[in-house]
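Practice problem: predict the structure.
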Amino acid sequence: MGLLDNFEKGLERAVNGAFAKTFRSGLQPVEITSALKREIDTKAAVVSRDRVLVPNNFTVRLAPADYDRMTGLGPALIDELVDLVQKHAASQRFQFAGGITIGLDRDSGLSVGMVQVDSLNVKGQVAWTPVLDVDGKRYPIIKGRTVIGRGSEADITLDDSGASRRHAEVQWDGSRARVRDLGSTNGTQLNGSPVKEAILEPDSVITIGRSRIVFRVLAQASGAPSDPRRADPATERHDMGGFWGPGE
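Answer:
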């Protein structure tokens, strides 16, 4: 299975059915991934025999209508784009100078369906940030316990009748994460199997009722926004950190 096939499956899992209908016409997310891959391949620079450096800071410019459709996905789309950039670089043994950042920008000079990518090599520190992606929203995890459930006392509240008031918790000690069911009525699943308590690996999927919760550990470029829930997608860039390439 190719990288674009993986991307399409990841994106299909990340978006709901109603939004997926938007992609039946007009700009497709896969066209953005193709543009990013071309930019990486074009800008690859041989630094030494064992080191080929590629950009890690990308600005994807879109026509206003395409920008509105794409940013409507929230962090899900950016996460998948960053993941594909990382995998493509790894497959080519390319390296980055720092954490990956991808921003979507509105460009009124472009026609619908057009994509232009600008890129830079930005050297910097990487801040590892654990997050939970829930229905297009990203929730950074603080050190300690993060309770998920239907009740107002939960740290992450689910609008889901299949969830208990205090359904499950994610524990983060600064380096590793665990998920633990809190005696819920309908139980908790991890990657499709019932679970009482288990270690969370990056990209693990927790299922509570109808809710799909993805655990990620993002290698953000230092200074990148860590909580996009505060951003207005109509006026701000969506800058998300990604994973280091080989040779970190």
